[in-house]
Amino acid sequence: MNFNAPRAKTLLERFDFAKLFLDELGWDRHNAALEVGIGGTSFALKAVAEKRGMVAWVCEAPSGQRIPDRAIRKKIEHQVARTTLEHLVIFTMKGQARIVPRRVV
To answer: pLDDT averaged over the chain?
Structure first.
């Protein structure tokens, strides 16, 4: 599989993480959902892909809210680590995204 950087960039700009991981990076499908409650707010995470135990999760900010601050993102990531040891979490909202990688060695 040859990596197509321009196509990958386009998929990132479109927030099409499933196609990015599956089609461009060659990861495997992983359909899972996780609900995390932090400080009275519920955050829904969706797994979009998996490769050898590493899972890519997407956490979209609740409607009308911004991407959570660093402290809340760390709490969310800590909850994800309970279910998926090796993972990355992509936090999104319309027009923005931040990726938080997590790999425990």
So the answer is: 89
Q: Which residues of 77-97 are buried (b: 16+ CB within 10 A; e: fewer)?
A: bebbeeebebbbbbbbbeeeb
- Rounded distance between C-alpha atoms, residue 19 and residue 29, angstroms: 10
Task: Report the chain's terminal Cα–Cα distance, integer Å.
Answer: 28
User: 76 vs 8, 19, 20, 42, CA distance in Å?
Assistant: 27, 24, 23, 10
SS in 3 state form for the chain?
CCCCHHHHHHHHHCCCHHHHHHHHCCCECCCEEEEEEECCEEEEEEEEEEECCEEEEEEECCCCCCCCCHHHHHHHHHHHHHHCCCEEEEEEECCEEEEEEECCC
CA dist., res. 60 & res. 66, Å (int): 9
Q: Which residue segments constitute the domains of the chain, with CATH numbers given? A: 27-102 (3.40.1350)
Q: pTM of the predicted model, to two decimals?
A: 0.84
